[in-house]
Amino acid sequence: MSSAHHKPNASSVQPVQKYALAVRIFHWVGVLLILAAFITINQGDDFIGVHKSIGASFLIWTILRIITRFVTKAPAPVPAPALQTLAAHLVHLALYVVMLAMPITGALMSMYGGRGVSVFGLFELPMIVGVDRDMSKLMNLWHTEFIWTAMWLLIVAHIGAALYHQFVVKDNLIARMR
Fold it and tell me: What is the rounded distance in angstroms from the CA atom of residue 25 to the CA atom of residue 64?
């Protein structure tokens, strides 16, 4: 593999700086929780309780993830054009916003509908609002349409950018989260 087209670029010869182990665990367990929430909601009404438990767990997990991200040192940024760096920061920020908004609107939808949110039977989220069917419908709309769509678009952008870095730029960016 000595041909020029397989030669690594300058950024790929730098040592990989990984995120802290806790950050990586929060990332990948978060991925699994999103997948589990998606799978369970598509299994029908018998699984709505499990879906809610996963969503509430994801909310708690995301809050802990954000705290961990603030108290751990991130690896140095990869060299990239300013516009790409800005786009990456904006996508990450938007991902955190939807990762909070998704379970919050789901919980509020239930609470406004007069239904509690149990976390695997261990405890219930406190009922922070009273019954209001119109607000329940609004939270349902936000949860199932707007935030859902934004979340998947952002996830696709995030994965697409990671794959672009891995296979086009070849800077081994994905190794930072392994």
Answer: 11
